Each structure stands twice: as C-alpha cells, then as structure tokens.
C-alpha cells in the first residue's frame, strides 16, 4: 500500500537539510504538491518587480521524492500567462502527458485552470529540476527535484553530513516576455540578462544586493553534498568555490566515477552533484558562477556569487573569490567533459547499446530568414538539418494518440539535405532555412545513434541538446567534422557519461546512443532558450510496442484542451 504525503510550504525556505530528514522511511509513497502559479513582487538589483512564481517562491519549491514514488502535482494557474511545467530529466515512461512542453505533449494550462501532473519515478535517483516550458517563462519559474535512493540503498559514495541545492539562474530587470517580444519584433537576439543568480540571488558583486546573497553555513571537517542545477536560459556556466575542490559524483541523476576538480562546467538543463570538504581555515569563501563562451557571440559575462561560511565566522570577514576558468577557456571545457564517466557497477550498469539499428546525423545551424516587418528585413533563425521547427497549434502527443491528420509529418530527414564543410570557414551567404513541423519516427525498442554536428552557418557555437523521455549515452565527441569512417573507432562503449542534456562542442560534434523503449512524442531541442525560440528543435515519435503495457497510456481526463 502506498502512503500519501502532502507538502505544505511556509515562508521559511529550507535550503540546507539533513540528508533524508524530510522523508519518512518505508515503502513507495504518493507525494502530492500544490503549485500555485502567480505573480509575486521580488526585489533584486535595486528594483522591485512582479515576476511569475510558483507558490510565491523564487526559486520555486523543491520537490522531494524517493526512487519509486509517485508525484502528484496539481498546477493551478493564477497568472495572466499560459503555463506548463516540464519535469526535466524524469523519464515519464509511457506517460508523455506528464512531460510538459507546451504544444508537444500538452496544450497550455490557461489562466484560472489546473492540471495535475502524475509522475511515477522509475529507476532514477539524484538531482533533476522542473521549469516552465512555454516561451521564456522558465526565467523565473523553476525549482529543484531531489530524488533520494530507495530506503536502505544509500549513495555509492561516502555519506555527506548535510546537503544543499545550488540553483544557478539568469535575471532580467525588465519583464522577460517583453524582452523576448522586442527581440522577435526586431529579428535580433533579445537583450542580454542583467545578472546571474545563485538560489535566486546575484550576490555582493552587484549593487543593492547585500540582502540578496545566499550563504551556506558549514562546519569544519564535515563533507557536504551540493546539488547544482543550471536553470539559466542562455548561458553555460563555470562554477567554483574559493579554496575548495569539488568532487563530481553524479550528473543528470546518474552516478559518475568520482573525480576532483577546481571548477565544474554546467550547461543549461544539466545538473551536477559534488562533494565539498570543509577542511580549510575557518572563514568565508565565495562560490561563483560565470559563463563559458568560446564563440564570437556576445554573452552576459557577469559573475554571480554566494558564500560558503564556516560556523562562527562573522559576516564582517571579507570573502575571497575563486579562480574561475576564463570565459573562453575551451581547453578547460573539453578536458572537464572528457573526465565524465558513468559509474558502471553491477548495481548501476551502463547499458550502452552496442548494436545500432538507426543512424541519424543532424546538423545544427543558425540562419537568417526574410522578415519584412523586422529591423533589417530579416530575422535570425536556427535549424536542424536545415529545418526550422514550426510549433503546432495542438499538442503533438494528442495528435499522435488520436491519429489527427495535418498536425505534423514524420519525414524529418535522417541526414542534412546537402553535405558541406560543416565547420570550415564561416558561411554567410544563403543562410535561409526550410520551415516545418517535421518529426522522425522511431521503431519501438530500436537502438538509435544520433550524431549532432555543429556548423559554421553564421557562426559556430556550443549547443546544449536536451532529449525528453530518455537518458542517452555520450559515446563520442570531437572538434571539426564527424568522420563516419574513423571516429566510431574512438567511441567509449564501456562507461560513457549518461545524461539527458549534452553540450555539443563549439565547431564540433557529439554522438549519443539510446534505446527507444519509451513510446510517445519526445521533444529534442537546444536548451539555450534563445535557440529553442528560433526553431532549433524537433521531436521523435517513438511507436508503441506490441501490447498495451508497452504503449502510450490514455490521456488524463484533465489534460488541458486547446
Ligand atoms: C509590486 O510592484 C509594483 C511595481 O513594480 C507595484 O506597482 C505594486 O504595488 C507592487 N505590489 C505589491 C503587492 O507590493
Ligand atoms: C487543483 O487545485 C485547484 C485550486 O486549488 C482546485 O480547485 C482543484 O480541485 C485541484 N485539483 C485536484 C485534482 O485536486
Ligand atoms: C496517477 O497514476 C497512477 C498510475 O497510473 C494511478 O494509479 C493514480 O490513480 C493516478 N493518480 C491521480 C491523482 O491521478
Ligand atoms: C533593451 O535594451 C535597450 C538598450 O539598453 C533598452 O533601450 C530597451 O528598453 C531594452 N528592452 C527591453 C524590452 O527591456
Ligand atoms: C585541489 O586539487 C588540486 C589539484 O589536484 C590540488 O593541487 C590542491 O591541493 C587541491 N586543493 C585542496 C584545497 O584540496
Ligand atoms: C563583459 O562584457 C562587456 C559588454 O558586453 C564588455 O564590455 C566587457 O569587457 C566584458 N568583460 C569581460 C571580462 O570579458
Ligand atoms: C580569450 O580571451 C582573452 C581576453 O579577452 C584573449 O586575450 C584570448 O586571446 C582569448 N583566448 C582565445 C583562445 O581565444
Ligand atoms: C541589423 O541591423 C542592426 C542595426 O542597424 C545592425 O547592427 C546589424 O548588424 C544588422 N544585422 C544583420 C544580420 O544584418
Ligand atoms: C574544411 O575547412 C577547414 C577550415 O577552413 C579546412 O582546414 C579543411 O581542410 C576543410 N575541409 C575540407 C574537407 O575541405
Ligand atoms: C536550406 O534551405 C534553404 C531553403 O530551401 C536553401 O536555400 C539553403 O541552401 C539550404 N541550406 C543548407 C545549408 O542546406
Ligand atoms: C528490448 O530489446 C532488448 C534487447 O533486445 C530486450 O532485452 C528487451 O526485452 C526488449 N524490450 C521489449 C519491451 O521488447
Ligand atoms: C493560451 O493557450 C490557448 C490554448 O492553446 C490559446 O488559444 C491562446 O491563444 C493562448 N494565449 C496566449 C496569450 O498565447
């Protein structure tokens, strides 16, 4: 019998907690949450402004669960914007209805309406997160998901004394939806963010921020587990703590072989768990986050800070800053990603598909399309295999399930229409793309290898790609053009990192593999919101298996109508 636990949130935020403190022991439970989407005034950087929040909290409430639990989250929309929530990294087996991306798996929850996301957590434990999945509203609508291992299972690394969530974000002083609308109208990138944040706070390097600094109190000699999430919209980030090394033990809710580093690299959408030992001279040490950008693209280069504060040390002690890798430190980024390995033990095996049923090769491109009403008569755009994805008017999963014709086609090409020197000199002529709501159909339980190839159409850039409904193995990666003859020989098929979001290197390629055992319609997109909104996205239609136990479940009764 499952027990039901309901979480009510007071005004106090529990940012640091005993490991497992909040969870009762015992069998799988049903955890119910009420998410009230509403506009709340928040003051940051000398401004007080209304932002869209969940339950008036920024960041929103942390969702706690244990592997095997069911989460029942009733989202009620009191804001003037349409809303939907994505449970980033949860696999939602056969149940895309609870995945959340608007017009992909559901229509929006309109003002005054509710929708209950019913999520069973199967064979996953670690740190994930939730966020709005409609336009740019995830700028303020996000929070952590903490999944503890099954009762008695423990961690495959030394038990930390305490743990804390470190949620990195991006802040605009103006209304984010207005910022985006202005960019779209001009056909140019919207204004850059005004700050980066750690747990919603920019830290003392920004004016008017004394009150807006997150501090984590630590005790000398103890070990802490930090659950780091990159909830920023457009920036890959470096993160470090002055004087303290970080031991990486988990990425995207998958255990890794532990390794120690002075800084981590984390792309939007990714999570990283690190152990930190409070073994330095008692004092105050800055934690800091700043972007990684190694392409000729302008970026908000400001540094967010928070404080690691030893118990008993007064606030008057001036903290020191960590040395973050330089903004354009490609070597650090490549070297860091290279160190990530699945734990791959008998208990947590890396089941990498060894035989590939379907080979896909997708080029990532930026481009320029005509736009008579835009500033230059053109608008910036983006594409996969030269196709700019057009959002449908009804949910694709609904169209698939009820076999509604005319919403999408399944002719997304397995390779680009033309081959060229993808990462050669910048291509600045004929940057037009084709438009369409074109998906790729994948046979149930087949194995897929997808090579994501960056191109120099307009410019090269690093793109964090996120696949919904699955984890995948990153079997290979390189700079330049993928060579189908030589590169597969270098693939790691033993203990490659397993994630739901991967940063394709600037001017390079990444090869991922997964087994298509989760039927439904699954979004795949660049997790830079700027590029998602420009069309750098598509979806896979994974067919049903032979019986109902391997087929998409029927939709819930309260699925929002279009
Ligand atoms: C919220 O801030 C706006 C100005 O940004 C102000 O007009 C409004 O009165 C504030 N509301 C509350 C409840 O403080
Ligand atoms: C969800 O919350 C709303 C607002 O509180 C409530 O009216 C509705 O009955 C709830 N739905 C469910 C399924 O509990
Ligand atoms: C959630 O889904 C489970 C499994 O499909 C079902 O048994 C349960 O009744 C659902 N709960 C709600 C509140 O919809
Ligand atoms: C974008 O930035 C420009 C220049 O600073 C400013 O004039 C404009 O008001 C900003 N737009 C929005 C929507 O914030
Ligand atoms: C952090 O790691 C570096 C490189 O391994 C090492 O030189 C340094 O002593 C370590 N620092 C601490 C505080 O452990
Ligand atoms: C950060 O960006 C601003 C404006 O884009 C630029 O003026 C400044 O030099 C940059 N700072 C660093 C350290 O790159
Ligand atoms: C990185 O940026 C610095 C400062 O802007 C510059 O001096 C350096 O040449 C750049 N390095 C690379 C590899 O582009
Ligand atoms: C568009 O116009 C702006 C402002 O005149 C200019 O700075 C920019 O280079 C132009 N962009 C393109 C892609 O033509
Ligand atoms: C592709 O372009 C790069 C850089 O311009 C060049 O070094 C390389 O030789 C080109 N490759 C081919 C096959 O033309
Ligand atoms: C993309 O499609 C457009 C429109 O058909 C075409 O003009 C362009 O050459 C194509 N670009 C590439 C790189 O295939
Ligand atoms: C999927 O394929 C694997 C490997 O052949 C097999 O072990 C598994 O039973 C299959 N799953 C289903 C649901 O058919
Ligand atoms: C909100 O969603 C509904 C249903 O899909 C749609 O008809 C309406 O246009 C949307 N409103 C806005 C402001 O996008």
CATH topology of the largest domain: Immunoglobulin-like
- Which ions, cofactors or small ligands are bound in this entry? 2-acetamido-2-deoxy-beta-D-glucopyranose
Secondary structure category? mainly beta
What integer value in Å does the Rg equal? 22 Å
How many H/I helical runs?
A: 4
CATH classification, class level of the largest domain: Mainly Beta
Keywords:
seven-stranded mixed beta sheet; binds 2-acetamido-2-deoxy-beta-D-glucopyranose; globular; 34 strands; Immunoglobulin-like; mainly beta; six-stranded mixed beta sheet; 562 residues; 3 domains; 4 helices
What would you note in describing this structure?
Strand 16 and strand 17 form a beta hairpin. The strands form 7 sheets. Strands 2, 11, 12, 14, 16, 17 and 19 form a 7-stranded mixed beta sheet that branches. The protein is mainly β and 562 residues long. The chain has 3 domains: 147 residues, Immunoglobulin-like; 178 residues, Sandwich (Immunoglobulin-like), CATH 2.60.40.420; 193 residues, Immunoglobulin-like, CATH 2.60.40. It contains 4 helices and 34 strands. The structure holds 2-acetamido-2-deoxy-beta-D-glucopyranose (12 copies). One 2-acetamido-2-deoxy-beta-D-glucopyranose binds next to loops.
């Amino acid at each position: 019998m499952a027990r039901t636990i309901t979480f009510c949130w007071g005004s106090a935020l529990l940012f640091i907690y005993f490991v497992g403190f909040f969870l009762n022991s015992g069998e799988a439970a049903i955890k119910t949450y009420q998410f009230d989407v509403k506009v709340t005034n928040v003051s940051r950087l000398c401004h007080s402004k209304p932002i869209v929040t969940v339950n008036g909290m920024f960041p929103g409430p942390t969702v706690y669960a244990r592997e095997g639990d069911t989460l029942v989250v009733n989202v009620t929309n009191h804001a003037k914007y349409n809303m939907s929530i994505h449970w980033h990294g949860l696999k939602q087996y056969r149940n895309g209805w609870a995945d959340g991306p608007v017009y992909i798996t559901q229509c929006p929850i309109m003002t005054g309406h509710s929708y209950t996301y019913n999520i069973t957590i199967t064979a996953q434990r670690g740190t994930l997160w939730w966020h709005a999945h409609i336009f740019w509203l995830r700028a303020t609508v996000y929070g952590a998901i903490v999944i503890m291992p099954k009762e008695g299972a423990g961690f495959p690394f030394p038990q930390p004394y305490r743990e804390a969530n470190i949620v990195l974000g991006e802040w605009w002083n103006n209304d984010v939806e207005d910022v985006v609308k202005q960019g779209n109208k001009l056909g140019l990138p919207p204004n850059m963010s005004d700050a980066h944040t750690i747990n919603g706070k920019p830290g003392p390097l920004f004016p008017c921020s004394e009150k807006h600094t997150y501090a984590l109190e630590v005790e000398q000699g103890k070990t802490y587990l930090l659950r780091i999430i990159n909830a920023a919209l457009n920036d890959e980030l470096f993160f470090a703590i002055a004087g303290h090394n970080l031991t990486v033990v988990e990425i995207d809710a998958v255990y890794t072989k532990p390794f120690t580093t002075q800084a981590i690299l984390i792309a939007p959408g990714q999570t990283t768990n690190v152990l930190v030992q409070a073994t330095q001279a008692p004092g105050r040490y800055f934690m800091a986050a700043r972007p990684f950008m190694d392409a000729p693209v302008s970026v908000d280069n400001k540094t967010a800070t928070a404080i690691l504060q030893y118990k008993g040390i007064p606030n008057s002690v001036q903290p020191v800053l960590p040395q973050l890798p330089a903004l354009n430190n490609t070597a650090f980024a490549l070297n860091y990603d290279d160190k990530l390995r699945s734990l791959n033990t008998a208990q947590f095996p890396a089941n990498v598909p060894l035989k590939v049923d379907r080979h896909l090769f997708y080029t990532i491109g930026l481009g320029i399309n005509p736009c008579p009403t835009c500033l230059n008569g053109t608008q910036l755009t983006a594409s996969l295999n030269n196709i700019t994805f057009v959002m449908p008017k009804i949910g694709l999963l609904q169209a698939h399930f009820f076999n509604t014709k005319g919403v999408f086609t399944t002719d997304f090409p397995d390779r680009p229409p033309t081959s060229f020197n993808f990462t050669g000199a910048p291509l600045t002529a004929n940057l037009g793309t084709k438009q369409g709501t074109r998906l790729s159909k994948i046979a149930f339980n087949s194995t897929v290898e997808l090579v994501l190839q960056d191109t120099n159409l307009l410019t090269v850039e690093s793109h964090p790609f996120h696949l919904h409904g699955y984890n995948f193995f990153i079997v290979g990666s390189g700079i330049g053009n993928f060579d189908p003859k030589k590169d597969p020989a270098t693939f790691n098929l033993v203990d490659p990192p397993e994630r739901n979001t991967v940063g394709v290197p600037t001017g390079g390629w990444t090869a991922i593999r997964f087994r298509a055992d989760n039927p439904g319609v699954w979004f795949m997109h660049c997790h830079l919101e700027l590029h998602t909104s420009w069309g750098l996205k598509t979806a896979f239609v994974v067919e049903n298996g032979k019986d109902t136990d391997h087929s998409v479940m029927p939709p819930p009764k309260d699925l929002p109508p279009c």
